[in-house]
Specification:
569 residues; nine-stranded mixed sheet; binds adenosine-5'-triphosphate; binds magnesium ion
């Protein structure tokens, strides 16, 4: 590529709405251009990085046996209604109507469409397993779009979906994808960590997130340096729920109770669109004298805590002063932790200030289809200690008994799930087994945030001059900076020769023939983050040498002209 024929647009200052370094640097390097909140044009320089990220993902997905297709961005509401997600997804799901007034979703992900493909295309056990993927535009109407490509509303995701005959098969497909992700993130040249994760609203069992390690990451990762224990904070806290943390004054009792039913019941009672916006519900009892008050603590998607005192909630006035046995009778369980819908979740909000101040607090927690009761975290403990109970902190013993836990911050760039029959059941995706009997397919899904990778890579690799791309995803691998391309014939001749040689060797090289002054030229490429720079000047050429400088190097190295191609390759 010749810079004069490409589009380069750098800025000295980042726009004031850019908060974190990756956002600032991508704006300054002219990689993205804001169109609206969370919506960006990928400018030529940024798109080159995106394409490299996509190509690595594509190669590794193909190698792992996944098959590429391309599903529509705009998807009929009917499919989303079949799985209930039309209602459950809430405002994050972008909806549009066509001229006939029919509803459509702009895909935030594609479980419904792929399950529809598979239920009509796959008939027999002989066609399984199969894993389809696409790299496609997504839209999520995020409550707080921010940090540039890191949390956009429109973004690119690679999402893959595996279908198997049985659970064992699904677990095998999951492992293949997990390994492919390790290969992908290694090729990106990024420091990352895979952690056990909660399944969240998607349902099913078994899930890992892949995080790029960065201090600015939104997520806390908990791991033991002495073993392979690693979990995101939510999953780690779910484990810490067990009474081994020494807070419970009595053993936990585990009773079979379907959490989903409980949550839905509460939502219905409250007449609130809980299924849409609320991840978890905590019921707490506050015994003031002889009276017992019920509190509902609604933990929303973003860990924002909302307290709703029951007597302020319409339709629940009859339970204003419910006794414990009334609650037992009504909800079929002791007051305690009820959510999130259908999944295991820590008692995150239990130690919230409000609750910790209650005189006598009884709580429980959900594991899928089980409910723990009998824990009493608050009793006899001073507030600060109570406040600490829900947190996993550095130095805590690792749940596997090996070593002490460390905590670091990460950016979620990938997520793999075992979904089981969550979608195949609702959408009746079956195949005929060897005996000709229909069986539900076992499904897995696997996402990578393609555009988020750019932000994450920069958060991990930058300095005061700009971005430092790992070579595998850099917009260009090598930049040639001639000193006087228009003035010196020797410089022009050597530069052109080297440029051709590098291209022939398959190196992604850019020749800066814009005629900028050296200082401005160097500053641009350091900001853009090209990992290798070669300076061609008359002075060096007199000794038959060129100057090489790696983006992280503090000084240049003189390299003989004839050796440069091999040197940067
Ligand atoms: P987050 O916790 O950051 O909101 P998520 O858990 O909702 O992400 P998934 O549904 O697991 O996201 O989607 C798979 C991947 O898509 C994520 O691991 C992430 O890399 C990427 N992704 C999700 N939301 C966004 C977004 N708003 N902008 C850019 N990438 C995103
Ligand atoms: Mg999200
Ligand atoms: Mg997440
Ligand atoms: Mg996720």
């Amino acid at each position: 590529m010749r810079a004069s024929r490409f589009f380069i647009s750098t800025l000295k200052e980042a726009p004031s709405d850019a908060e974190i370094v990756s956002h600032k640097l991508m704006m300054r390097a002219g990689m993205i251009k804001r169109l609206g909140s969370g919506i960006y044009t990928y400018m030529p320089m940024g798109l080159r990085v995106i394409r490299k990220v996509e190509n690595i993902i594509r190669e590794e997905m193909n190698r792992a046996g996944a098959v590429e297709l391309l599903m529509p961005v705009v998807q009929p509401a009917e499919l989303w209604q079949e799985t209930g997600r039309w209602d459950k997804m809430g405002p994050e799901l972008m909806r549009v109507k066509d001229r006939h007034g029919r509803d459509y979703a702009i895909q935030p992900t594609s479980e419904e469409v792929i399950t529809d493909v598979v239920r009509t295309e796959i008939k027999s056990y002989r066609q399984l397993p199969i894993n389809f993927y696409h790299i496609q535009t997504k839209f999520r109407d995020e409550r707080r779009p921010r940090f540039g490509l890191m949390r956009g509303r429109e973004f690119t995701m690679k999402d893959a979906y595996s279908f198997d005959r049985d659970v064992e098969g699904m677990q095998k497909s999951y492992k293949i994808m997990y390994d492919a992700y390790v290969a992908i993130f290694n090729r990106f040249g990024l420091q990352f960590r895979a952690v056990a994760a909660d399944n969240g609203a998607i349902g099913g069992s078994g899930s890992h997130e892949f995080h790029v390690i960065a201090d600015t990451g939104e997520d806390a990762l908990v791991y033991s340096p002495e073993s392979d224990y690693a979990a995101n904070m939510e999953a780690a806290e779910a484990v810490a729920l067990t009474p081994t943390r020494g807070a419970a004054t009595q053993p936990l009792v585990k009773t079979p109770t379907p959490g989903k039913a409980k949550c839905e019941h509460v939502a219905e009672l409250l007449g609130l669109p809980l299924a849409q916006t609320v991840k978890s519900i905590v019921l707490a009892v506050d015994k003031e004298g002889a009276e017992t008050e019920i509190w509902l603590l609604l933990l929303r998607g973003d860990h924002e805590l909302n307290e709703v005192k029951v007597n302020k909630v319409p339709g629940l006035s009859t339970f204003r002063f419910a006794t414990e046995s009334e609650i037992m009778e009504f909800f079929g369980t002791k007051p305690g932790y009820l959510g999130p819908i259908g999944t295991k979740k820590p008692i995150k909000v239990v130690a919230d200030r409000t609750v910790a101040n209650m005189n006598d607090f009884v709580c429980g927690a959900n594991e899928e289809d089980f409910h723990y009761t009998g824990a009493n975290w608050g009793r006899d403990l001073p507030d600060p200690v109570v406040a600490d109970l829900r947190n996993v902190v550095a130095g805590d013993p690792s749940p596997d008994g090996k070593g002490a836990l460390s905590i670091q911050r990460g950016i979620e760039v990938g997520h793999v799930f075992q979904l089981g029959t969550r979608y195949s059941e609702d959408m009746k995706a079956t195949y005929l087994d060897e005996t000709g009997k229909p069986q539900l397919m076992q499904m897995g899904c696997y996402g990578i945030g393609v555009t988020r990778i750019l932000g994450a890579a920069i958060e991990q690799n930058f300095d005061e001059k700009g971005i430092i791309w790992p070579a595998s995803i850099a917009p260009f691998e090598v930049v040639l900076c001639p000193m006087g391309y228009d003035r010196s014939e020797a410089v022009k001749a050597e530069t052109d020769k080297l440029y051709d040689a590098l291209l022939a060797a398959g190196v992604d090289v850019v020749l800066d023939d814009r005629g900028e002054r050296p200082g401005a030229m160097f500053a641009d490429w350091e900001l853009i983050g090209v990992p290798h720079r070669v300076v061609i000047g008359d002075r060096g050429l007199k000794d038959g040498k060129l100057e090489y400088q790696g983006r992280r190097d503090t000084a240049a190295t003189a390299v003989p002209v004839a050796e440069m191609t091999a040197f940067v390759k």
